[in-house]
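Table S2 (continued). Query chain:
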Amino acid sequence: METRRKITRGEWALLGLTGLFLCLLLGLFLRDRAAMGGPASVETERTASAGEVRPDPRPVNLNAADAEALTALPGIGEELARRIVEYREEHGPFASVEDLTEVSGIGQGKLAALEGLVTVEDTA
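Corresponding output:
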């Protein structure tokens, strides 16, 4: 058998205050959302195809590329591209991709990031 319990005045007061508090929170949320200029959205992750990052998916030939072509590689800025070209001019063509670590500013981490994006081919 089910017994029903009467709700006291204190409980009604708490329910009313809770409802008012929730309405206040909803109002604040809607005001903030309107101030942001539209629906709130958060971009958590974006993936890009190889074509978006580098329009030309072919590996860059370290023995033929100019500084501009080298700056298209991830992690290679203008200064580092200039150092690569200078190194190649002073020491001759790269014999392997691993020789790139001889250039100041390129370590194993940067070399790993360039894996598959660079190659060494005979320019003759």
